[in-house]
Amino acid sequence: MPRRLVKAYFLRRLLLIPPTLVGITLLVFTITRFVPGGAMDRMLQEAARGADQGGRSSSASTQSQGGLSEEQMEEIEEQFGLNKPVLVAYGQWLGLVPRETRISKGEFGARSGGIRADAGSDQRTQVVLRGDGRLVDVTRTPDGRIDAVFAESDRPVSDEGWKTRLESPEDRVERFQRRNPDSSTTPAYRPRAIIYQTRISGLLQGNLGRSTVYNDPVHEMILARMPIAVYFGLLTAFISYSVCLPLGMLKALKHRTFLDTASSVLVFLGYSIPGFALGAILIVHLGARMGMFPLFGLTSPDFDQLDTVGKIKDLAHHTVLPLCCYIVGSFAVLTMMTKNNLMDNLAADYVRTAVAKGASFRRAVFGHAFRNSMIPIATSLGNLVTVFIGGSMLVETVFDIQGFGLLQYQSVIARDEPVIMGTLTIAAFLMLVGHIISDLIVATVDPRIKFE
Fold it and tell me: End of a domain among 144, 170, 199?
């Protein structure tokens, strides 16, 4: 096959990764925006609980917002981009659209003690810059623009990178109604000056954001869980392939014997038991009743005080039960796939022809049939790259192992959008790369594959 065709094929596959990732992440990002129970709902519930526990009275409008003032509600919206359309907010998360930071506001025509400051206050206001503390004089021009200068020097704020915009009463009403769709009344708003800075920071810049639950950087949370995923992923892959491939070959060669029947019963018995259910059984009997293995965690509380040999023994002691739950489900699929593929190839004409020409049965099996039997199995080898984010959230929940699967599960339960998007992006990317690697492996094993 021309090498040029192979390069062109894989180049097309690689170029398809970015648009596929955009489609996946945009779909999930949109869903998380409209599913109830997000960051704002959670903060409203926490504020409502705090207000109830404090026993303080509040107005009807404040109670309807869970104990938060309108200014606090707007800050939460701006923090998570909820005040922007979905595509704009997605562009900010992606790192293509600048984010508004250090947002400072000033209302035109504001009253102080029920008395208007002066006759021209409808066109002027003052804003204290957030994170800066300097005072800015803002003037609204007849054509709808606003001029903002520092009060101490009359120098435009734009000289230091600040941007300005005018928020009309209609814009504020629309924002209130979007935030309170069940409200029958709308407050009377005045125009407002918004002064802010912009910063581009998103996925393309390596920033996955911060967790809305723990306030930790998402990339640090993911990196902290990856060693556990890699540890169990490599162990599971090594044990599965080193046991299932020889066992599948043995079952094919000993078809319909006692060994084949007994091993099939054991394999399918393990396959029929969910990993988390097996984990619960092992914890109860081997952990709680017999005391042979630890009940939870991956290490003991005094792990850091042990020597190297002690750490290895402690880690292995904690690994046995969860590892059994990880590998029990993959044994049946891989074993039976190896057996069935090898039996099909042993019955093929080319194997009988090789034996008829004088080739030994061992050479016919290992030199011809076995290689062709590995072609379907090779399609799954590329997915081994997902060991970096592998794991079972149910098994990790049962054994209280802080792995990648448990992180995904906890982020979905808590509606932690930044963590959901971060884990999804990494998992989807590795899955797509794994499929490409699988194609390359299959093409290497099977010369009949044509890339056109």
Answer: 199
